[in-house]
Amino acid sequence: MFPGMGKMNPKQMQGMLKQFGIKTEEVDAKRVIFELENGKKLVVDNPAVTAMVMQGHKTFTVMGDAKEEAGEASIPDADVKMVAEQAKVSKEKARKALEDSEGDIAEAISSLNE
């Protein structure tokens, strides 16, 4: 349950935590995904996830091998509409131009007007 806790039996560990008012439970998770501020994702496949409730707050511990993945760039619909109107093209072409320009509106309009 808690790696690195020596040779302590998991049941003994749960008993100790219970004495301190901490409840734990294993969470059966296949995959955990953290969406990072930079648009990328941190993905843990087949993780060991433990939930602890302490003083009314739930904390999750995730253990496993994580890998970073590129996140899908989310292009706001308002940007797509603006580019489509300015360049006089369909929303599909505008979205593609925004994706190609990594969300840069001016560059997307410029590329569509060439």
Structure description:
Helix 2 (77-87) packs parallel to helix 4 and helix 3 crosses helix 4. The strands form 2 sheets. A 3-stranded antiparallel β-sheet has the order 1-4-5. The chain has a 3-stranded antiparallel β-sheet with strand order 2-3-6, with no helix packed on it. The model has no long low-confidence stretch (mean pLDDT 86). By secondary structure, the protein is α+β, with helices and mostly antiparallel strands. It has 2 domains: 10-69, Ubiquitin Ligase Nedd4, Chain: W (Single Sheet), CATH 2.20.70.30; 77-112. The chain has helices at 10-19, 77-87, 91-100, 105-112; strands at residues 22-27, 31-35, 41-45, 48-54, 57-63, 66-69. The chain starts with 9 loop residues before the first helix and ends with a helix. A hairpin with a 2-residue loop joins strand 4 (48-54) and strand 5. The longest helix is centred in the C-terminal third of the chain and has 11 residues, at 77-87. It has 4 helices and 6 strands, in the order αββββββααα.
